[in-house]
Structure formats: structure tokens, C-alpha cells
Amino acid sequence: MQLRYAFRLYPDTGQRVALTRAFGCARVVFNDAVRTREDARKAGWPFPTAAGLSRKLITEAKRTAERAWLGDVSAVVLQQSLRDAEAAYRAFFASLKGTRKGARVGAPRLKSRKDARQSVRFTANARWSITGSGRLSLPKIGAVKVKWSRVLPATPSSVTVLRDAAGRFFASFVVDTDPVTDRARMPETDRTVGIDLGLTHFAVLSDGTKIDSPRFLRRAEKKLKKAQRELSRKQKGSNNRDKARLKVARAHAKVTDARREFHHKLSTRLISENQGIAVEDLSVKGLARTRLAKSVHDAGWAQFTGMLGYKAKRYGRTLVEVGRFEPTSQTCHVCGTVDGPKPLNIREWTCTACGTVHDRDHNAAINIETAAGLAVSACGAPVRPGAIPAQREETGSHGFPTDVRAA
């Protein structure tokens, strides 16, 4: 399977200028492709082909005075930008036809130089390499210093260099991992677990373990508010406003990184200790529209379950998602009696049939494990068929590095 490994880059001043130039050229080519196709659509002309766009927007454009500076960057970067535009249109058309999985996507839009994230991609044709001293050598940019936090398991097929809103540079490598080697790292076990995700505790396991919610955003809220106030008082377009914006972005980046690190460590622990894992398919988008929205976003359930998904697939584990309408909090796991809905302030309840006193979250975690077919209920009630291995497509090299650094 393909995974992305992201590492921090520390370019010098000249390399920063070269990378910024590459970001700009890739963005211009992408925007030119979008404009050309939009103009063709409005005029009723045939849809431009990828080869035609490459010849017009790159080869011929370099010979003009207006686009001569496209020759200052690697041609592979420009070609990959056209491929990104092509992929965006394919996703849009597939969404219109209803053949694309997931949420509907709109037509590609023009990119801005002020976008929070800028990126360029180098494939093997670009002849990039990792030097003997551990630097990343990129064409027309130079050998960039890399902070290697771990060893790459295989030779990467491509690398994406990106800059985030906080001004940090990353190199994201696409690596094909060996399934046999991966599964050998995680020996099989007979343990299974059900997970009830929540806000009071981030997760309650079916074995009774309660994992506190770190609440990274809540803890950093005071500092974030101060930085945001300072930003709002700066004059628009001034250098001081740019400095204040960078300060806000760095504060948010610290929160994001801490949350991602927590999710990585917890998901890896659960995957290594359990052969089967059951979670509830929560409606995160729906919960994010309630008064609990800030706490829901702070918890980051979707990111956590996504990590469980790809790690389960990688290491030969089983992940089952239980339907969100399953009455896991209303059902007594001892006798199977459905005791009806209960308000959120009730954390303990007593079964009216058997008299068992339940911790709401622990009882829900046990019911999630049972409903997934990973365990048999105490009352001997039938359970669902066996678990199905998680099927989640691995992301390519286009997204922000929600990577496997802490996997």
C-alpha cells in the first residue's frame, strides 16, 4: 500500500526564494489551465486535451515575454500542476455523474498566491535525490536540509514540497510499503475492543479503560485569542499585519500538531494491542452544527478514525464501524433490554429489567464491540456477521501531511 512520510525542511534564504518561485509558476500554470478550459466551455469549443494544454501553456508559453520566467523552474513541476488540474476536472465530472465516492465537489477554482498552503511535486523524471549527507536535492532549488525523524521503509516514488500557513516547509514522500513486513511488525493477537468516542472522555474502551480528552484547543484558547486580537488591530496590507497573521498561524499549528500526535500514538497503541476494533460511525458534520461544535472539532474524531482505518489495513487488523443509529447507549449489555433514550447529563443508569448499574460510556463501548460481531453479548443474543477489514483509500501526495510520522 502507498503511504506518505512527511519531514520538516529547513531551506536557506536562496532556497526559500527558489521554492517560492516554483510555487508561483505551478500556480500560474494551474490557473491558465482552468481559464483555458473555462473559455472553451463558454465559447462552445471542444474540450482541450492534456497534451494540447501542455504544448500551449508550458512549451509555447516559455517562448513568450509574458511567461518566459516559467523556464526558471523544473518542467516536471509544471507538468504535475497540469496533472493536478486534470485530476480536479475528473473528480468534478465524476461527481456530476454520481460515480465519485464521498461528498460532491465543485469545478476547479483559481488558486491564489495568498492561499494558506502552497505546494509543488517532483516525480522520478525530475531527478531529485537524497544526498549522502542526508539533504534533499531538488532541481533548480538545491540541496535542502531535512530533519529526518525516521527511516523511510522503501525508496520513495515522488516527493511533494509544501509550505503551510505557518511558513513551515515540509517534504512529503510517497512510499510503497511491503505488506508482509508490515504485518510482521504487529503479531496477531486474540484481543478485540469496542471504542465509544465522546467529549467528557476522548474514548472509553470496552475493557473499562477511560482515556481523557486532551482538549488542545481549549487549553490554547487564551493564547489564540490574544494573538487574534493583535491581528485584528493591525492595518490591512501592512508588514505588521503579516507578522501578526504568521503568529496566529503558528499558534494554530501547535494545536494541530499536538492533536495529530495524540491521535497517532493512541491509534497505534490500539492497533498493536487488538486484532479487532469497533467504533461508532458518528455524524461529525451534524454534531459540528450544534452548540458543542468547538468541542467536537477539538476532539478530531474523524482524523482519529481515519488513522485507525489505514493502520488496520496496513497491519492486517480488522476495523468495523457500527451504524450511528444503533442504540448502544440505551441497551443493557447484560440482558439486552433497550431502556430508551437518555439526556447527556445522565452518565450512569440502572437497567429496569435486571437491575444492573451501568456507566453510560463503558456500556456503550461494550455494545459497540458486540454489535460489530467482535464479541457475544452476555444474554447470548445473536450478533452481526464477522468483521470486515477496513477499506480506506490511502491519500496521495496532494494533502497536508497528515502523515505517519508517529505511526
Tell me what the structure shows.
It is built from ten helices and 14 strands. It has 407 residues and is α+β, with helices and mostly antiparallel strands. A seven-stranded antiparallel sheet has the order 2-6-7-1-5-4-3. Strands 10-9-8-11-12 form a five-stranded mixed sheet, sandwiched between helices. Helix 5 (216-232) runs antiparallel to helix 6 (239-273). The two termini are 15 Å apart. Residues 376-407 have low confidence and may be disordered.
SSE layout:
Blueprint: E1 2-10, H1 13-43, H2 50-59, H3 75-97, E2 118-123, E3 129-130, E4 136-138, E5 142-147, E6 158-163, E7 169-176, H4 179-185, E8 192-197, E9 201-205, E10 210-212, H5 216-232, H6 239-273, E11 276-280, H7 284-287, H8 293-299, H9 301-315, E12 318-322, E13 348-350, E14 357-359, H10 360-371
Parallel strand pairs: 8-11, 11-12
Antiparallel strand pairs: 1-5, 1-7, 2-6, 3-4, 4-5, 6-7, 8-9, 9-10, 13-14
The main β sheet shows up as: 7 strands, antiparallel
- Percent of residues in helices comes to 25-40%
The radius of gyration over CA amounts to 25 Å
C-alpha termini separation: 15 Å
Mean pLDDT, all residues: 90
In the predicted model, the low-confidence regions spanning at least 5 consecutive residues are: 376-407
Please identify the structural class as seen in this structure.
alpha+beta
Number of strands: 14
Strand percentage lies at 15-25%
| Global morphology | elongated
The helix/strand series, from N terminus to C terminus, equals EHHHEEEEEEHEEEHHEHHHEEEH
**Helical region count?**
10
Can you list the strand order of the major beta sheet?
2-6-7-1-5-4-3
